[in-house]
Design brief:
Blueprint lengths: L2 H9 L1 E6 L2 H9 L5 E3 L9 E9 L3 E11 L18 E7 H5 L17 H17 L5 E8 L5 H14 L3 E6 L15 H10 L7 E2 L14 H4 L5 H12 L12
Parallel strand pairs: 1-4, 1-5, 5-6, 6-7
Antiparallel strand pairs: 2-3, 3-4, 4-8
Length: 255
Amino acid sequence: RRPVARAMAAANTLLIGGPAAGNLVEALRRTDQAIRAADPSSPSETSVLLAWRVSTKYYTADVDVLVVEGEPREGDDDGGEGTAPCSALVVAVDLRALAGPGGGPEAGTGPLEGLSPGPAGALRQWAAFHDRWGAEVDTAVCVGITAAGGGEAARVSVERWCAESTAMEFVHLDLDSEAAFAFDAREKEGVARVVEVLECHMWPNMEMRRPPGPGPAGPVVGDRAAGGDGAAGAASDAVAEVAEPKEAADGGLAK
């Protein structure tokens, strides 16, 4: 691809990474969000490319989903010509695996201290990945996954780490909780919150839905692609309220 085309593709890419990236994709597939295989050839031996049709009451957009299990690897961290490989990042970790055999850190330890070094190290590397690209990756979420209880001490540690040391919003995903999949809830959590945040992201190829009443509504390109406000401003105004990260005390894809 030409440099501009590569940059455009990267800006329209969601990267799901981390030790539990596959678990999060499976959780998303439990909903009515349509994530499907894209090109049968994967970008690399350690990553998988999927496709997601974002569909909200305001717009639709076709987004590439790059899934990288574990740590960021060489080749996954550059979209070409010095551009970020994505514009939105979700990092997923299994809180029980993170807690390790000891059940988690002792009281009074710092964020991520006393946790299983493998998953904790991966989280730190993804945070460094996000810091490297700064505003180019302007939506970032860290998802702590658990099921059947457990991992509470690890959850508290990761949530604190996100609040104090990263620019990522922390979302707790309990796979056994119905609330994690309650898309109609006013205060969303789990998968529902992750989707809510990503739907509020300004995807550059978004096409605004036809508003009620006369007047056509054609394809509209967002700020990254056109260098102007386009429909991004209107969509941003419409969804800004739900896009705001939750307070640290609260802890949270379409055919």
